[in-house]
Amino acid sequence: MYLQRLKTVGLVSALSCFALLPMGCKKAPPITLACNASAPTVYPGDPLTVTATAASVDPNKKNNVIYSWSGDGVTGNGTTATVNTASLAPGSYTAKAEVKEGKKGKEGLKPGQTATCSADYAVKQFEPPTVSCSANPTTIKPGDSATITATGVSPQNRPLTYNYTATAGTVTGSGTTAEYSSAGAPTGAVGITCGVTDDKNQMASANTTITILAPPPPPPAPKAQALCSISFSNDARRPLRVDNEAKACLDQVALDLKQQADAKAVIVGEADAKEQAKTAKEEAYAAKHKHAKVEDAAAQRAVNAKDYLVTEQGIDASRISVATTTTDAQGAQDYLVPAGANFSSDVPGTTPVDESTVKPQVRKPLAERHPKKAAQ
What are phi and psi of 20, to 5 degrees? Predict the structure, then answer.
């Protein structure tokens, strides 16, 4: 009976195998595991996951399946693990996974119930930043300023800091724009360097140039300029009188003074050799005789010409100076002296007239001759 029972049980078991599997009761295939990283390369800090996919797991789900992970920065206890790439230096890495199947507490004890896989990935070095540098304007005058602009780019959008240097002068600023001051810098080309640094201490720099122009030469110092000259030799009977021809010249002098309100005039009187000898003789005599009269024809011509400008043309007397020279002529030379000009150095050889001793003469017409005397 016992033997018959065994045979019956065996028959039932066999029938059960054929019911479950058409090919009969065979050994279950071993479990397999495949790993895959979400990206082949990443930068430090980028998200990265690794997935393990098992195959040939017990279809009846009678067995328990557990996963385990290993690798630098890898954490996980299921089909997916995460990688802390921020903690990894640039290089190549491998994430490993293991799967075990079996009854709870006995997973992986039987052959074919354990499988492993790995996924390779690389952590790349952050690319260094780049920067461009420009100045506006590029040409300035001594003491002027310019704006410096730096445009930095990080391929991975890392935070950037800026710095600036100059071969002369100073640059102030730490952002994308700075101000260059040329104070104290010599003229010529000045080199400006724009620098940028990311948070990984990777640096880049670029250069630009500013030209400081030499200051223009100062304008030439104003000079006294000769205007028209007056001849007093036209009227032999009145050689000191300002005649109509002289008036035409002096009218032009007055017009120049009115057009240049900050200019002055100097009238330099002249006497011929005979008049100069007479004056010298009178001065010698006056040196011994207190009340002796001295007539200086050159001084008198200058004073008379000035008087015409003041009384007839309304020119302020303080704007007109009078002087004499030793030139052998019966005339006067008029000069316009712009503001800032030095007449004494521009026209040497003149002597100022003491206007307290030489007074202007009234312009009187020549007296008519008596008819009888004229007839004789």
Answer: -80, -40
